[in-house]
Amino acid sequence: MKIELIELHHLDMPLVHPFETSFGRDYTRPCILVAVRAEGLTGWGECVADSGPWYSSETIDTAWHILRDFLIPEILSRTVDSPAEVVTRFGRVRGHPMARAGLENAIWDLLAQAQGISLTQMLGGRRDRSPVGVSIGIEPELDLLLEKVERHVAEGYSRVKLKIKPGWDVDVVRAVRERWPDLLLQVDANSAYTLDHTPIFQELDQFDLLLIEQPLHHEDIVDHAKLQAQLQTPVCLDESIHSPEHARWALDINACQIINIKVGRVGGLTAMRQIHDMCAERGVPVWCGGMLETNVGRAANVALATLPNFTLPGDISASARYYHEDIAEPNFTLNDDSTLSVPAGPGLGVRIIPARLAAVRLRHLSVPE
Ligand code: OSB
Ligand code: MG
Questions:
Q1: Which of 81, 172, 214, 256 has the fewest CB atoms below 10 angstroms from its CB?
Q2: Which domains are delineated in the chain?
Q3: Catalytic: 148?
Q4: What is the pTM of this model?
Protein backbone atom coordinates (compact mmCIF):
# COMPACT_ATOMS: atom_id res chain seq x y z
CA MET A 1 0.00 0.00 0.00
CA LYS A 2 1.32 3.43 -0.86
CA ILE A 3 1.23 5.66 2.23
CA GLU A 4 -0.39 8.90 1.06
CA LEU A 5 -0.91 10.93 4.22
CA ILE A 6 0.14 10.80 7.87
CA GLU A 7 -1.46 12.89 10.60
CA LEU A 8 -0.56 13.53 14.24
CA HIS A 9 -3.20 14.59 16.77
CA HIS A 10 -1.98 15.74 20.19
CA LEU A 11 -4.87 15.20 22.61
CA ASP A 12 -5.43 15.97 26.27
CA MET A 13 -8.14 13.79 27.81
CA PRO A 14 -9.72 14.65 31.21
CA LEU A 15 -9.54 11.56 33.46
CA VAL A 16 -12.65 10.36 35.32
CA HIS A 17 -10.53 9.97 38.49
CA PRO A 18 -7.09 11.49 39.09
CA PHE A 19 -4.39 8.79 38.90
CA GLU A 20 -1.48 8.94 41.38
CA THR A 21 1.76 6.97 41.13
CA SER A 22 5.06 7.33 42.96
CA PHE A 23 5.96 10.10 40.48
CA GLY A 24 2.88 12.29 40.74
CA ARG A 25 -0.85 12.84 40.37
CA ASP A 26 -2.48 13.26 36.94
CA TYR A 27 -5.85 14.87 36.25
CA THR A 28 -5.68 14.64 32.48
CA ARG A 29 -3.90 12.28 30.16
CA PRO A 30 -2.23 13.46 26.94
CA CYS A 31 -1.42 11.26 23.97
CA ILE A 32 -0.59 11.50 20.28
CA LEU A 33 -2.90 9.67 17.91
CA VAL A 34 -1.20 8.76 14.65
CA ALA A 35 -3.35 8.34 11.53
CA VAL A 36 -1.96 6.75 8.36
CA ARG A 37 -3.95 6.99 5.13
CA ALA A 38 -3.66 4.75 2.06
CA GLU A 39 -6.08 3.53 -0.61
CA GLY A 40 -9.11 5.04 1.11
CA LEU A 41 -8.34 3.42 4.49
CA THR A 42 -7.03 5.01 7.69
CA GLY A 43 -4.97 3.11 10.26
CA TRP A 44 -4.69 4.45 13.82
CA GLY A 45 -2.01 4.11 16.47
CA GLU A 46 -1.64 5.65 19.93
CA CYS A 47 1.65 7.07 21.19
CA VAL A 48 1.53 6.83 25.00
CA ALA A 49 4.24 9.38 25.89
CA ASP A 50 3.26 11.63 28.79
CA SER A 51 3.53 15.42 29.14
CA GLY A 52 6.80 15.09 31.10
CA PRO A 53 9.66 12.56 31.47
CA TRP A 54 8.29 10.87 34.61
CA TYR A 55 7.46 7.27 33.74
CA SER A 56 9.69 7.30 30.68
CA SER A 57 12.26 9.73 29.30
CA GLU A 58 10.01 10.27 26.27
CA THR A 59 7.49 13.11 26.31
CA ILE A 60 4.74 14.26 23.95
CA ASP A 61 7.16 16.83 22.51
CA THR A 62 10.08 14.43 22.00
CA ALA A 63 7.72 11.95 20.35
CA TRP A 64 6.26 14.67 18.11
CA HIS A 65 9.78 15.69 17.05
CA ILE A 66 10.94 12.12 16.36
CA LEU A 67 7.74 11.25 14.48
CA ARG A 68 7.71 14.43 12.38
CA ASP A 69 11.43 14.70 11.60
CA PHE A 70 12.60 11.07 11.44
CA LEU A 71 9.88 8.41 11.41
CA ILE A 72 7.21 9.89 9.14
CA PRO A 73 9.78 10.69 6.39
CA GLU A 74 10.87 7.02 6.46
CA ILE A 75 7.50 5.79 5.25
CA LEU A 76 5.55 8.68 3.70
CA SER A 77 4.97 8.17 -0.05
CA ARG A 78 6.54 4.71 0.18
CA THR A 79 4.91 1.35 -0.42
CA VAL A 80 4.47 -0.66 2.78
CA ASP A 81 3.10 -4.19 2.65
CA SER A 82 4.17 -5.57 6.04
CA PRO A 83 4.98 -4.26 9.54
CA ALA A 84 8.45 -5.82 9.15
CA GLU A 85 9.28 -3.25 6.46
CA VAL A 86 8.41 -0.46 8.90
CA VAL A 87 10.62 -1.96 11.60
CA THR A 88 13.50 -2.16 9.12
CA ARG A 89 13.01 1.46 8.04
CA PHE A 90 12.91 2.62 11.68
CA GLY A 91 16.08 0.63 12.43
CA ARG A 92 18.31 3.69 12.22
CA VAL A 93 16.44 5.43 15.05
CA ARG A 94 17.79 4.60 18.50
CA GLY A 95 15.50 4.85 21.50
CA HIS A 96 12.11 6.62 21.35
CA PRO A 97 10.07 3.39 21.50
CA MET A 98 6.76 5.16 22.21
CA ALA A 99 7.13 7.34 19.11
CA ARG A 100 8.02 4.30 16.98
CA ALA A 101 5.14 2.25 18.39
CA GLY A 102 2.56 4.96 17.63
CA LEU A 103 3.37 4.87 13.92
CA GLU A 104 4.15 1.16 13.57
CA ASN A 105 0.87 0.23 15.27
CA ALA A 106 -1.08 2.51 12.91
CA ILE A 107 0.46 0.56 10.02
CA TRP A 108 -0.66 -2.75 11.58
CA ASP A 109 -4.23 -1.41 11.82
CA LEU A 110 -4.08 -0.18 8.21
CA LEU A 111 -2.74 -3.49 6.84
CA ALA A 112 -5.22 -5.56 8.85
CA GLN A 113 -8.08 -3.43 7.52
CA ALA A 114 -6.78 -3.86 3.97
CA GLN A 115 -6.80 -7.64 4.44
CA GLY A 116 -10.26 -7.53 6.01
CA ILE A 117 -9.04 -9.23 9.20
CA SER A 118 -8.90 -8.12 12.83
CA LEU A 119 -5.64 -7.02 14.44
CA THR A 120 -6.04 -10.05 16.72
CA GLN A 121 -6.02 -12.36 13.69
CA MET A 122 -3.09 -10.55 12.15
CA LEU A 123 -1.09 -10.97 15.38
CA GLY A 124 -1.99 -14.64 15.61
CA GLY A 125 -4.24 -14.36 18.69
CA ARG A 126 -6.83 -17.12 19.02
CA ARG A 127 -8.99 -15.92 21.91
CA ASP A 128 -11.90 -13.54 21.54
CA ARG A 129 -11.48 -11.97 25.00
CA SER A 130 -8.58 -10.95 27.21
CA PRO A 131 -8.39 -11.31 31.01
CA VAL A 132 -8.10 -7.95 32.74
CA GLY A 133 -7.65 -6.31 36.11
CA VAL A 134 -7.62 -2.80 37.48
CA SER A 135 -4.67 -0.62 38.55
CA ILE A 136 -5.47 1.57 41.56
CA GLY A 137 -3.41 4.67 42.23
CA ILE A 138 -2.14 5.98 45.54
CA GLU A 139 -4.96 7.56 47.59
CA PRO A 140 -4.77 10.32 50.20
CA GLU A 141 -6.10 7.90 52.86
CA LEU A 142 -6.41 4.16 53.39
CA ASP A 143 -10.21 4.32 53.73
CA LEU A 144 -10.50 5.94 50.32
CA LEU A 145 -8.33 3.19 48.83
CA LEU A 146 -10.46 0.46 50.44
CA GLU A 147 -13.59 2.12 48.99
CA LYS A 148 -11.99 2.05 45.55
CA VAL A 149 -11.02 -1.60 45.84
CA GLU A 150 -14.57 -2.38 47.05
CA ARG A 151 -16.08 -0.61 44.04
CA HIS A 152 -13.85 -2.33 41.50
CA VAL A 153 -14.35 -5.77 43.04
CA ALA A 154 -18.12 -5.14 42.91
CA GLU A 155 -17.77 -4.14 39.23
CA GLY A 156 -16.34 -7.60 38.61
CA TYR A 157 -12.56 -7.15 38.43
CA SER A 158 -10.93 -10.34 39.71
CA ARG A 159 -7.45 -8.85 39.90
CA VAL A 160 -6.34 -5.63 41.58
CA LYS A 161 -2.99 -3.86 41.34
CA LEU A 162 -2.03 -1.37 44.04
CA LYS A 163 0.47 1.39 43.45
CA ILE A 164 2.96 1.56 46.32
CA LYS A 165 5.71 3.92 47.50
CA PRO A 166 7.72 4.18 50.74
CA GLY A 167 5.18 4.89 53.49
CA TRP A 168 2.29 3.47 51.42
CA ASP A 169 3.09 -0.22 51.20
CA VAL A 170 2.99 -2.98 53.85
CA ASP A 171 0.08 -1.58 55.90
CA VAL A 172 -1.93 -0.86 52.79
CA VAL A 173 -1.37 -4.32 51.33
CA ARG A 174 -2.17 -5.93 54.70
CA ALA A 175 -5.47 -4.03 54.96
CA VAL A 176 -6.54 -5.04 51.45
CA ARG A 177 -5.45 -8.64 51.91
CA GLU A 178 -7.31 -8.99 55.25
CA ARG A 179 -10.55 -7.75 53.70
CA TRP A 180 -10.21 -9.72 50.42
CA PRO A 181 -8.31 -12.94 51.24
CA ASP A 182 -8.88 -14.53 47.81
CA LEU A 183 -8.45 -11.52 45.53
CA LEU A 184 -5.72 -11.76 42.88
CA LEU A 185 -3.49 -8.97 44.16
CA GLN A 186 -0.24 -7.39 42.97
CA VAL A 187 1.72 -4.19 43.60
CA ASP A 188 3.60 -1.68 41.43
CA ALA A 189 6.33 0.55 42.89
CA ASN A 190 7.33 2.44 39.74
CA SER A 191 10.99 2.37 40.86
CA ALA A 192 10.38 4.11 44.19
CA TYR A 193 12.72 1.84 46.23
CA THR A 194 16.36 0.70 46.51
CA LEU A 195 17.98 -2.51 47.75
CA ASP A 196 18.10 -0.89 51.20
CA HIS A 197 14.33 -1.51 51.29
CA THR A 198 14.72 -5.29 50.83
CA PRO A 199 13.11 -5.99 54.28
CA ILE A 200 9.91 -4.25 53.11
CA PHE A 201 9.64 -6.61 50.14
CA GLN A 202 10.39 -9.60 52.37
CA GLU A 203 7.45 -8.48 54.53
CA LEU A 204 5.26 -8.31 51.44
CA ASP A 205 6.09 -11.97 50.78
CA GLN A 206 3.47 -13.00 53.38
CA PHE A 207 0.52 -11.55 51.39
CA ASP A 208 0.46 -14.04 48.53
CA LEU A 209 0.95 -11.37 45.85
CA LEU A 210 0.97 -12.40 42.19
CA LEU A 211 4.00 -10.20 41.64
CA ILE A 212 5.91 -7.09 42.68
CA GLU A 213 6.28 -4.74 39.71
CA GLN A 214 9.40 -2.61 39.11
CA PRO A 215 10.46 -2.06 42.73
CA LEU A 216 13.93 -0.65 41.90
CA HIS A 217 15.62 1.82 39.55
CA HIS A 218 13.94 2.36 36.18
CA GLU A 219 16.96 1.20 34.13
CA ASP A 220 18.17 -1.54 36.47
CA ILE A 221 18.32 -5.28 36.06
CA VAL A 222 21.31 -6.12 38.29
CA ASP A 223 19.81 -4.99 41.61
CA HIS A 224 16.49 -6.58 40.65
CA ALA A 225 18.31 -9.92 40.27
CA LYS A 226 19.75 -9.48 43.78
CA LEU A 227 16.30 -8.67 45.15
CA GLN A 228 14.57 -11.54 43.35
CA ALA A 229 17.06 -13.99 44.88
CA GLN A 230 15.86 -12.93 48.35
CA LEU A 231 12.10 -13.07 47.67
CA GLN A 232 9.42 -15.74 47.22
CA THR A 233 7.13 -13.38 45.30
CA PRO A 234 7.96 -13.02 41.59
CA VAL A 235 9.55 -9.73 40.61
CA CYS A 236 8.00 -8.33 37.40
CA LEU A 237 9.82 -5.74 35.31
CA ASP A 238 8.04 -2.83 33.60
CA GLU A 239 10.20 0.33 33.18
CA SER A 240 13.51 -1.58 32.70
CA ILE A 241 12.39 -3.45 29.57
CA HIS A 242 12.59 -1.27 26.45
CA SER A 243 13.19 -3.91 23.79
CA PRO A 244 13.45 -7.66 23.16
CA GLU A 245 17.16 -7.37 24.02
CA HIS A 246 16.41 -5.89 27.45
CA ALA A 247 13.96 -8.74 28.07
CA ARG A 248 16.58 -11.35 27.18
CA TRP A 249 19.25 -9.70 29.33
CA ALA A 250 16.88 -9.52 32.30
CA LEU A 251 15.84 -13.17 31.99
CA ASP A 252 19.43 -14.35 31.47
CA ILE A 253 20.41 -12.97 34.88
CA ASN A 254 17.13 -13.85 36.67
CA ALA A 255 16.22 -10.22 37.28
CA CYS A 256 12.52 -11.13 37.15
CA GLN A 257 10.14 -14.06 36.75
CA ILE A 258 7.41 -12.17 34.91
CA ILE A 259 7.41 -9.36 32.33
CA ASN A 260 4.87 -6.56 31.94
CA ILE A 261 4.66 -5.86 28.20
CA LYS A 262 3.56 -2.39 27.19
CA VAL A 263 3.57 -2.07 23.44
CA GLY A 264 4.62 1.59 23.64
CA ARG A 265 7.50 0.99 26.02
CA VAL A 266 8.99 -1.82 23.88
CA GLY A 267 8.64 0.03 20.56
CA GLY A 268 5.66 -1.52 18.78
CA LEU A 269 3.67 -4.66 18.08
CA THR A 270 6.54 -6.46 16.35
CA ALA A 271 8.81 -6.12 19.40
CA MET A 272 5.86 -6.96 21.65
CA ARG A 273 5.42 -10.26 19.84
CA GLN A 274 9.14 -11.06 19.94
CA ILE A 275 9.19 -10.60 23.71
CA HIS A 276 5.99 -12.64 24.03
CA ASP A 277 7.47 -15.50 22.02
CA MET A 278 10.81 -15.50 23.81
CA CYS A 279 9.10 -15.53 27.22
CA ALA A 280 6.81 -18.36 26.07
CA GLU A 281 9.85 -20.45 25.08
CA ARG A 282 11.40 -19.89 28.50
CA GLY A 283 8.20 -20.54 30.45
CA VAL A 284 8.01 -16.93 31.66
CA PRO A 285 4.46 -15.51 31.85
CA VAL A 286 3.72 -12.05 30.47
CA TRP A 287 0.82 -9.64 30.87
CA CYS A 288 -0.29 -6.46 29.17
CA GLY A 289 0.48 -3.21 30.99
CA GLY A 290 -1.59 -0.07 30.53
CA MET A 291 -0.85 3.61 30.00
CA LEU A 292 -4.37 4.99 30.54
CA GLU A 293 -4.97 4.61 26.80
CA THR A 294 -7.91 5.90 24.79
CA ASN A 295 -10.00 3.27 23.03
CA VAL A 296 -7.45 3.26 20.19
CA GLY A 297 -4.61 2.04 22.39
CA ARG A 298 -7.03 -0.05 24.44
CA ALA A 299 -8.20 -1.92 21.33
CA ALA A 300 -4.56 -2.73 20.46
CA ASN A 301 -3.97 -3.94 24.03
CA VAL A 302 -7.07 -6.15 24.06
CA ALA A 303 -5.95 -7.64 20.74
CA LEU A 304 -2.34 -8.32 21.72
CA ALA A 305 -3.34 -9.77 25.09
CA THR A 306 -5.13 -12.61 23.24
CA LEU A 307 -1.73 -14.14 22.44
CA PRO A 308 -1.32 -17.42 24.35
CA ASN A 309 1.45 -16.47 26.79
CA PHE A 310 -0.51 -13.47 28.14
CA THR A 311 -1.58 -15.68 31.04
CA LEU A 312 -1.94 -13.00 33.74
CA PRO A 313 -4.70 -10.36 33.66
CA GLY A 314 -3.73 -7.10 31.95
CA ASP A 315 -4.02 -3.49 33.14
CA ILE A 316 -6.73 -2.99 30.53
CA SER A 317 -9.84 -1.81 32.35
CA ALA A 318 -13.23 -0.84 30.92
CA SER A 319 -13.27 2.48 29.04
CA ALA A 320 -15.60 4.14 31.57
CA ARG A 321 -12.94 3.86 34.27
CA TYR A 322 -10.73 6.31 32.37
CA TYR A 323 -12.78 8.77 30.30
CA HIS A 324 -16.35 10.09 30.33
CA GLU A 325 -16.34 10.31 26.58
CA ASP A 326 -13.69 8.49 24.59
CA ILE A 327 -12.57 9.73 21.15
CA ALA A 328 -13.36 6.31 19.63
CA GLU A 329 -16.26 3.85 19.81
CA PRO A 330 -17.42 1.35 20.87
CA ASN A 331 -16.44 1.54 24.52
CA PHE A 332 -14.98 -1.55 26.16
CA THR A 333 -17.13 -2.97 28.97
CA LEU A 334 -16.23 -5.62 31.52
CA ASN A 335 -17.58 -9.15 30.94
CA ASP A 336 -18.72 -11.32 33.88
CA ASP A 337 -15.47 -13.29 33.79
CA SER A 338 -13.25 -10.19 34.26
CA THR A 339 -12.36 -10.00 30.57
CA LEU A 340 -12.72 -7.48 27.75
CA SER A 341 -13.93 -8.73 24.37
CA VAL A 342 -12.07 -8.14 21.14
CA PRO A 343 -14.30 -5.86 19.06
CA ALA A 344 -15.76 -7.31 15.87
CA GLY A 345 -14.57 -5.79 12.63
CA PRO A 346 -11.33 -5.37 10.73
CA GLY A 347 -8.19 -3.85 12.22
CA LEU A 348 -8.55 -2.40 15.71
CA GLY A 349 -12.33 -2.61 15.44
CA VAL A 350 -12.95 0.89 16.83
CA ARG A 351 -13.93 4.02 14.89
CA ILE A 352 -12.86 7.58 15.63
CA ILE A 353 -15.57 10.15 16.40
CA PRO A 354 -14.16 13.26 14.63
CA ALA A 355 -16.08 15.83 16.72
CA ARG A 356 -14.81 14.29 19.98
CA LEU A 357 -11.27 14.17 18.64
CA ALA A 358 -11.46 17.86 17.71
CA ALA A 359 -12.85 18.75 21.16
CA VAL A 360 -9.79 17.42 23.05
CA ARG A 361 -7.16 18.24 20.44
CA LEU A 362 -4.37 20.69 21.29
CA ARG A 363 -2.26 20.36 18.13
CA HIS A 364 -2.50 18.83 14.68
CA LEU A 365 0.01 18.01 11.95
CA SER A 366 -0.73 16.68 8.49
CA VAL A 367 2.00 15.58 6.09
CA PRO A 368 1.70 16.50 3.34
CA GLU A 369 -0.35 19.52 4.49
O1 OSB B 1 3.47 1.63 35.81
O2 OSB B 1 1.92 0.46 35.00
C3 OSB B 1 2.39 1.58 35.24
C4 OSB B 1 -0.06 4.31 34.17
C5 OSB B 1 0.81 5.30 33.74
C6 OSB B 1 2.16 5.08 33.85
C7 OSB B 1 2.64 3.86 34.38
C8 OSB B 1 1.76 2.87 34.78
C9 OSB B 1 0.39 3.12 34.71
C10 OSB B 1 -0.63 2.19 35.15
C11 OSB B 1 -2.00 2.34 34.53
O12 OSB B 1 -0.48 1.38 36.06
C13 OSB B 1 -2.66 1.08 34.14
C14 OSB B 1 -3.90 1.37 33.29
O15 OSB B 1 -3.77 1.85 32.13
O16 OSB B 1 -4.98 1.09 33.79
MG1 MG C 1 4.17 -0.39 36.10
A1: 81
A2: 5-117+350-367 (3.30.390.10), 121-341 (3.20.20.120)
A3: no
A4: 0.97
